[in-house]
């Protein structure tokens, strides 16, 4: 029996090996690094209306196209590069989402200037420590929370695009601001401790 079969996991991740690896090593792990936060903001805003599996499969394409998620470089992308990206099959070719990523890189740096880091800013919405949910089944999973509502509203006020409450909550789950692993998943206790 291989390692994937031996462990109890959240059922949403069982579609393909990259999804399992993402679940086992990244999803829900607290992130304090601004580059990683920016990567997930780009990927999650690109996901709007699509599945996370689709975005995971294009992650390397995004990494290449978006300067390894260097927000300073992305903030400087000219319109001519937007036109190139619209031809790139390695990413979601949506002009609004591409322009949103560039806009969000600029807003991201404004937040850094105000708070010292984006991490300081975002962790302030959960009191500086991960929210520990107790989900027994995926039916109990939430798409938004009061925290994601407040964060999305504040991001919008600051000029961020394509980051509504559902997308923001996905970011909070991915970057460990909230532990939404099911209690029966082997990662739940690992991340709770």
UniProtKB/TrEMBL annotation:
Pfam families in UniProt: Adenine_glyco
UniProt cross-references to SUPFAM superfamilies, sorted A to Z: DNA-glycosylase
Coiled coil: none
InterPro entries for this protein: Adenine_glyco (IPR005019), DNA-3mA_glycosylase (IPR052891), DNA_glycosylase (IPR011257)
PANTHER family per record: DNA-3-METHYLADENINE GLYCOSYLASE 1, DNA-3-METHYLADENINE GLYCOSYLASE I
Protein name: DNA-3-methyladenine glycosylase I
Naturally occurring in which organism (per UniProt): Algoriphagus aestuariicola
């Amino acid at each position: 029996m291989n390692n994937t079969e031996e462990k109890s996991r959240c059922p949403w991740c069982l579609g393909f090996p990259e999804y399992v690896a993402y679940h086992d090593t990244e999803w829900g792990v607290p992130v304090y690094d601004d580059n990683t936060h920016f990567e997930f903001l780009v990927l999650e805003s690109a996901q709007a209306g699509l599945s996370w599996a689709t975005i995971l499969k294009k992650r390397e394409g995004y990494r290449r196209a978006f300067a390894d998620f260097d927000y300073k470089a992305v903030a400087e992308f000219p319109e001519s590069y937007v036109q190139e990206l619209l031809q790139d099959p390695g990413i979601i070719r949506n002009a609004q989402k591409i322009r949103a990523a560039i806009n969000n890189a600029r807003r991201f740096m404004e937040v850094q200037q105000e708070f010292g880091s984006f991490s300081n800013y975002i962790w302030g919405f959960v009191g500086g420590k991960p929210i520990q949910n107790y989900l027994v089944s995926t039916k109990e999973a939430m798409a938004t929370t009061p925290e994601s509502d407040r964060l999305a509203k504040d991001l919008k006020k600051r000029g961020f695009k394509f980051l509504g409450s559902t997308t923001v909550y996905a970011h909070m789950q991915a970057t460990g601001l909230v532990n939404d692993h099911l209690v029966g998943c082997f990662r739940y206790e690992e991340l709770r401790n």
